[in-house]
Write a structure and sequence with these properties.
27% of the residues lie in helices and 20% in strands. It is built from five helices and twelve strands. The strands form three sheets. A six-stranded antiparallel β-sheet has the order 3-12-11-6-5-4. A hairpin with a 4-residue loop joins β9 and β10. α1 packs antiparallel against α4. The protein is elongated, with a radius of gyration of 36 Å.
């Protein structure tokens, strides 16, 4: 699907560029004077018709002079580029740069990341080392933020049966990975140590430490990523698989456990 989108985007950009070029070229060709022999106001000097001389007599009728035949052609080096040609070329150049920048930005956005980084599988490190960082000495949960995955790794020791993420590939090795983005309007949701949850500072949506909706305008739970554990014990977060879940009727984590941060 990504390859099809990239090909379609490039084709559309090429068609737009060709259309802009064709319009600018035709407008330039349509200016009088581009065809050899056609009159051009900026590039034509007309001879001043001399009045009949007094010696010829006032009654003599002067033969009319055709202004087209009496004109003097001016070379390209003298009159250079007309204003309309200049603006046509300027418009074409601006549109060309815009299409090029837009195309490169679109390709960089849609181009798949083959290894590492958000949008692909991210190796978060040894699972055993991660687990030891998730629980403080006093029993509080301390989410581990993985910047390359834009995700919080949190422990999950309960039974997912009956929860909104039952039978989903979001739990592995006793942990899950929650996307940092609030599902309301996309703000980054920080953790709140005192309440033991996630609380959005933008519009007040609140979630427990399993990412389950608690209050606020958010329409559902926090989104989460599929996670796996390799044979070598490494936790892998697949950020290409964003899994959405509805508000949980049965909560799997207690909230709040203290004062709110917002």
């Amino acid at each position: 699907m990504t390859t099809v989108l990239v090909i379609a985007f490039v084709a559309i950009a090429a068609v737009l560029a060709a259309a802009v070029f064709a319009i600018a070229y035709r407008r330039g060709r349509g200016i009088p004077g581009d065809v050899p022999g056609a009159p051009r106001r900026p590039g034509v000097q007309r001879d001043v018709l001399a009045a009949p001389s007094a010696a010829a007599g006032a009654d003599d009728e002067a033969e009319p002079i055709d202004p087209l035949e009496a004109r003097t052609e001016v070379g390209v080096d003298e009159y250079n580029v007309t204003r309309r040609q200049f603006f046509n070329r300027a418009i074409y150049g601006v549109f060309g740069l815009f299409l090029a920048n837009f195309g490169l930005a679109g390709l960089s956005y849609m181009w798949p990341k083959l290894s590492g980084g958000f949008g692909s599988k991210v190796n978060a490190g040894p699972l055993d080392s991660i687990v030891t960082q998730l629980i403080a000495d006093d029993g509080r949960i301390v989410p581990l933020f993985i910047p390359s995955a834009q995700a919080y790794v949190v422990p999950f020791a309960g039974d997912p049966a009956g929860s909104s993420f039952e039978d989903l590939p979001v739990i592995a090795g006793g942990v899950m990975a929650l996307w940092q983005k609030c599902v309301h309007l996309g703000c980054r949701v920080p953790e709140c140590d005192s309440s033991q949850g996630f609380e959005c500072p933008c519009h007040g949506s609140k979630y427990n430490y399993h990412g389950e909706y608690e209050s606020g305008p958010a329409p559902r739970n926090l989104d989460r990523f599929a996670v796996t554990v390799t044979d070598g014990g490494e936790l892998v977060i697949d950020t290409s698989q964003v899994i959405q879940t509805a508000r949980s009727a049965t909560k799997t984590a207690e909230y709040p456990q203290g004062p709110s941060c917002i």
